Structure formats: C-alpha cells, structure tokens
C-alpha cells in the first residue's frame, strides 16, 4: 500500500511538471485586446459609412492625448479593427480616415484601462 502511495505521488508530480511545461506563455505584451468599428460621417450623403483602411493609433502607458503613438493599425474593409496582445494597463487610442476625395475625418480619441490579462474592450469610433 505504501508503494502505491509513493508511485501515485510521483505520478502526480510528473503530471504537474508536464502540464506546466506545455502551457503556452503569454505574448510579448499580454492577452488583452481592443476591438471595434470605425465609421465616418459622410458629408455628401449625411450617412455614417464604414471607414475601410482607417488608421487607428495607440499609445501605451497613458490615458491622455499625445502627439506620439507607439503603434498604428488599419481597419479592415468593413471598418472593423482588432488590437491583440495587450497587457493590463493604460492606453490612448485615436483614429483618422481620408476618403477618396482627400477629405480627412478624425476623432480626438479615448483613454482606456485594461484591468486584467484577458480583458476585451470594445471601442467604436465615429469620425467627423
């Protein structure tokens, strides 16, 4: 009986070691994400249109407007975007779009906080 308990204990320890060694590590920044859509107030039609290829700028570690941004992303053809791999912390996002007539639309931005490793935050931009 004592031999069975010792074998069971070693098996359990081995299982824990194997399980932890196979665990996928977080990305270089984290596992949080920010996603949403970018639309613009079309002056010609008066409608809100999807802003394909809008530029979303993000700053890390701040929640206030800044002239400097750490990264830029482009929205997809349906105006959606997704920024993945973010660690808990403060971020500032803004967006801009230039239509085919070279008219520029922008949004002053949002300061947000990601509170946990796996947080997902939805931020939609309406550019004017």
* Averaged pLDDT: 84
Return the string of H and E elements: HEEEEEEEEE
- The coarse overall form would be elongated
Distance between the termini: 76 Å
DSSP helix count?
Answer: 1
CATH class: Mainly Beta
Residues in β-strands, percent? 35-45%
Which stretches of 5+ consecutive residues score pLDDT under 50?
Answer: 12-28
What is the number of domains? 1
Instruction: Tell me the radius of gyration.
Output: 23 Å
Give the CATH H-level superfamily: Immunoglobulins
Q: Structural class of the helices, strands and pairings?
A: alpha+beta
CATH architecture annotation:
Sandwich
Q: Biggest β-sheet: count, sense, barrel?
A: 5 strands, mixed
Overall number of strands = 9
Could you name the CATH topology?
A: Immunoglobulin-like
Helix content: 10-25%
